[in-house]
Specification:
The protein is mostly helical. It has one domain. The chain has five helices and no strands. It is globular.
Length: 101
């Protein structure tokens, strides 16, 4: 098991925190037809908690932004180097847990 917090350097995180806030908001906005900007978010907790708090929700459907990314692969081209580096770090860490022959 590789905790996501180990990758992003925080203790209370969700998988969505591998994305920079701007990158995740782009996915969120696409999925929900919104136009939120990072400037409206508050707190240092997970990005999904910050969005839910701003929207006045207890939770929102986390699958919808993931589905938006899967359905529109062109969104991958817009991901920042920081987001890509986080995912690369996770993949390298996961690979390091695999047994070698």
């Amino acid at each position: 098991m590789v905790p996501i917090g180990e990758i992003v350097g925080r203790t209370v995180v969700d998988i969505e925190d591998l994305f920079t806030p701007n990158d995740y908001l782009s996915l969120y906005n696409k999925a929900f037809g919104k136009s939120l900007d990072v400037s409206v978010l508050t707190g240092s907790d997970s990005i999904v908690s910050q969005i839910a708090r701003h929207e006045g929700l207890e939770r929102f459907n986390h699958n919808k932004p993931a589905e938006a990314l899967l359905r529109d692969r062109s969104l991958l081209a817009g991901l920042s180097p920081d987001t890509l580096a986080s995912f690369e770090k996770l993949i390298r860490r996961l690979n390091a847990t695999m047994p070698t022959d």
